[in-house]
Amino acid sequence: MALLENQLFGQVDKVAVAIERIKTFEPIDRPYFVAISGGKDSSVIHDLVKKSGVKARFVHSFTTIDAPQTIRFLKKNHPDVEFVYPEIKPLPAMMLKWKEPPTQLWRLCCRYYKENAGKGEFLITGVRSDESTKRKAKKMLETCMRDSTRRYLHAIIDWTEADVWEYIRSRKLPYNPLYDPPYSVKRVGCVMCPCGSNRVEEAMRIAPRIIDTWRRWMDRLHAEGVKQGWPVAKHHKTAQDLWNWWLSDKVPTDKNQMSIFED
Question: Are 233 and 100 in contact (CB under 8 A)?
Fold first, then answer.
């Protein structure tokens, strides 16, 4: 079993270790803020926090372009999850405020729609180091670089994807149907997220209407850019050019083409 790991000084039970972490760092003055995305990792975190017996507030930051299957899954299987709604919706409408669309490197959408809800909180997440190169550098306990009032406990930071699925299946936990056919996604997140691959093909299987939403607001972004003289219109002659560029997965490299902020 992957969750029982043989190490130099004996066998380690990853489940017991994760639960002990959650108990050890429990805040004295407030409940944990548990970020629930609706993905497989957050399903595990939800169960571990429940088993630990600590005080916790389970929260899903609704982005307005979540997959409908994810919303239905959460409401049916985790009624204790609180939905936090954004001030401006839908998310693609924010492009008019940003004056450009989100890209792989310029991701204010995450900052506005996912991270604001945890301000001043001690968050438990399902972040794992094997998910990406960037996440390999993360530590179990962290303070947010942009907001020192926000702290994180990555309780399953050392788990693998196999560990996550073993936990879910061995305990018969409900999980998001998007992982199974006909959807078969690798990761659950916003529909048409610029950080994902095969965005259109995946969105066509999950929620085709959200493609239309993105396209309508992209057209409005370009039209407003023409009126206001924004760079987005100067570098893309038509709305179709802008749309094609955005779907091409090309990240900006020319500082004069698009502004980029490290996320």
Answer: no
Domains in the chain with CATH codes: 10-179 (3.40.50.620), 199-247 (no CATH)
Instruction: Tell me the per-residue pLDDT of 85-96, one tens digit each, with 9 for 90 and over.
Output: 887 678 888 899
Whole-number Å distance between alpha carbons of 13 and 207: 39
Q: Let me know the angle formed at the C-alpha of 38 by 36 and 44, rounded to the nearest 5 degrees.
A: 70
Please list the ranges in the chain whose pLDDT falls under 50.
252-263
Residue 243: both structure tokens together: 């749309």
Nearest to 203 by CA among 92, 123, 85: 92
Q: What is the DSSP letter of 152?
A: E
Pairwise CA distance, residues 84 & 102, whole Å:
21
CB contact at 8 A, 123 and 33: yes
CA–CA separation, 175 and 114 (whole Å): 21
This prediction's pTM: 0.86
3-state SS class at 178: helix
Write out pLDDT tens, residues 33-92. Answer: 999 999 999 999 999 999 999 999 999 999 889 999 999 999 999 999 999 988 767 888
Of 72, 76, 29, 20, nearest to 49 by C-alpha is: 20
From CA 37, how far away is CA 248, in angstroms rounded? Answer: 26
- CB-count burial class (<10 Å; 0-12, 13-18, 19+) for 98: middle
